[in-house]
Amino acid sequence: MNQRWLRPAAFLDRDGVLNHDVGYVGTRARFRWVDGAPAAVKRLNDAGRFVFVVSNQSGVARGLYSEADVRDLHAHLAAELAATGAHIDDFRYCPFHPEAVLAEYRRVSDWRKPAPGMIEDLLRSWPVDREASFLIGDKASDCAAAAAVGIAGHLFPGGDLDRFVAGILARGDGQTLAVAERRGDR
């Protein structure tokens, strides 16, 4: 790919980064933005970055909601962001889990973080400058997925996402691993 056309990207986990993680958020009724999240997405857009969402959605495998519910929720997020002048360039989610209740979703998937499959798919699909890109997640597994593809991972400790993103952009931390706090994985 021609280096001139590459753009840096911000890969964002969804639950715990863009929205409050109250456990298996699969519907609009359970979705609540993290403070500063729409402004953070706009800041990333204005900085010329692709913005991608990469999210494990084991609630599908557990039978708590459907893939259609996930797609509906992502469309709702996109509409709310558009109203603020912001946008997500693309969404990826993994509905699979090795201990799924629903047999059709019971498997190990290279898309389920800490595996890097979702990020790899986006890197193949978009002209991304990998070296200048980063991921923001709320779990060590998010940062492990970033490390697996050679991009910086930043662990979001909660609070105001826009302030957190502004700090990353101001420091030029796209190429360094900044882990603020370790959390367990779901």
Write the layout of secondary structure elements.
Layout: E1 9-12, H1 37-46, E2 50-56, H2 58-61, H3 67-83, E3 90-94, H4 117-125, E4 134-137, H5 140-148, E5 152-155, H6 161-171, E6 178-179
Parallel strand pairs: 1-2, 1-4, 2-3, 4-5, 5-6
Question: How would you describe this structure to a colleague?
Answer:
It contains six helices and six strands. Helix 1 packs parallel to helix 6. The longest helix is centred in the middle third of the chain and has 17 residues. The C terminus is likely disordered.
Helix content: 25-40%
Ranges where pLDDT stays below 50 over 5 or more residues in a row are 175-186
How many angstroms does the end-to-end distance come to?
Answer: 36 Å
The helix tally amounts to 6
Major pleated sheet: 6 strands, parallel
Which structural category fits the helices and strands?
alpha/beta
Number of strands: 6
Order of helices and strands: EHEHHEHEHEHE
Task: State Rg.
Answer: 15 Å
- Strand proportion, as a percent range, falls in 5-15%
Order of strands, main sheet, comes to 3-2-1-4-5-6
Q: Name the average pLDDT.
A: 92
Shape, per Cα inertia axes:
globular
